[in-house]
Write a structure and sequence with these properties.
alpha/beta; 6-stranded parallel sheet; globular
Length: about 170
Amino acid sequence: MKFTNLFPGEYELSTYDIPYESLYREGFRGIIYDIDNTLVAHGAPADERAKKHFKYLYELGFKCCLLSNNDEPRVKSFADDVGALYIYKAGKPKRRGYEKAVDLLGVKKESTIFIGDQIFTDIWGANRAGIRNIMVRRLYPKEEIQIIFKRIPEFFVLFFYRLYKKNKR
């Protein structure tokens, strides 16, 4: 594995700040999302901001799918609230879940983008599957212990990602 396979395609401060109109004009039609700390706090239900966000995406013409390593009750309830397709126990960073999401959306991989907050599951998996991706800053600092342990090496990956991006200019 090349170290750069861990680098996000892009980095944004928030899911809610991404220029979705531009992505649509570029030809993207499918969006795959992580849920926890990407759209809402870890374990939180879909809030009004998330519901309005998905309504906006559907009005633009996007199809959306949630891709999560969580159990079905967590993912299904969120998906029902925002009207999205979903895959639970996705096994991220394995390619299989990402490829299944693209198939569910009925779009091509080249017109799909993935958005998530973790390098070692979300971004690495999207890169392995050949799907363009955007990493967003986690929404809330409170996380499960296994995620906290991943944030330490993630800090170093992001440090080298920023150097890499700076040197490419």
